Amino acid sequence: MIGLTEEECQQKQLPYLVGRATYANNPRGQIIGDTNGLLKLIFAPADKKLLGVHIIGEMASELIHIGAHVMAEAGSLDAFIEAVYNYPTLSDSYKYAAYDGMGKIAAWEEEQRNEVRVTSNK
């Protein structure tokens, strides 16, 4: 792992969302027989800045450097979506975890708008 955990974000009262990709849904994960692996991206929803990367499974030590590089550059989920990964590789999980996270941003934005409406109506 690198960066913040969900618990640390909660303690620091930082808004965050999580994008996940499982090895079970990754062709390389299926080939190597690791269907329990998981790659998790923690990011700030407002600007998609990467806050943490957690990997459990085969080759985690070979994959974490990709997330570490994006964090060192203060990068966002866009870095993973714009990247080209070899196929089939476990590194492709970064792209799918980023897409999973991006899919949660609209719901988070709607929740924020609703909170503003409730607060302004008081």
Give a structural overview:
- The chain is α+β, with helices and mostly antiparallel strands.
- The protein has one domain: FAD/NAD-linked reductase, C-terminal dimerisation domain (Enolase-like, domain 1).
- 48% of the residues lie in helices and 17% in strands.
- The chain is built from 5 helices and 4 strands; from the N terminus they run βαβαββααα.
- β3 and β4 form a beta hairpin.
Task: Please specify the SSE layout and strand pairing.
Layout: E1 2-3, H1 6-11, E2 17-22, H2 27-32, E3 38-43, E4 50-56, H3 60-72, H4 77-82, H5 93-120
Antiparallel strand pairs: 1-4, 2-3, 3-4
Can you give me a brief rundown of this structure?
Helix content is 48%, strand content 17%. By secondary structure, the chain is of the alpha+beta class. It has a single domain (2-120), classed as Enolase-like, domain 1 (2-Layer Sandwich), CATH 3.30.390.
The CATH topology turns out to be Enolase-like, domain 1
Across the major sheet, the strand order is: 1-4-3-2
Q: Roughly what is the average pLDDT, rounded to an integer?
A: 95
Estimated helix fraction: 40-55%
User: First CA to last CA: what distance?
Assistant: 42 Å
Distinctive features:
122 residues, four-stranded antiparallel beta sheet, alpha+beta, 5 helices, 17% strand, elongated, Enolase-like, domain 1
